[in-house]
Amino acid sequence: MYKFEKNNKQGILKITVNAKEWENALQNAYETNKGRFNVQGFRKGKAPRRVIEQTYGDTVFFDDAFDSVISTEYAKFLDENKEIVPAGHPHVSMDKYTADKGLEATLTFDIMPEFVLPDLKTISVKKDKAVVSDEEVEKEIENERARHARYVEENKAAELGDFATIDFVGYVDGEKFEGGEAQDYRLELGSHTFIEGFEDQVVGMKNGEEKDVNVKFPENYMAENLKGKPAVFKVTLKKVEKKVLPEIDDKYVSDTTEFETLDEDKKSIKENLKKVAEEKVERDYEVKLIDAIADKANIEVPDTMIEHELHHMVEDFEHRLSHQGMTLDLYLGYIGKTMEQFKEERKVDAEKNIKTRLTLQKLISQNNLTVTDEELNKTIEEYASKYQMTAEDFKKSMSPDDYAYFENNAIMTKVLTFIKANVK
Question: What is the total count of domains within the chain?
Answer without folding.
Answer: 3
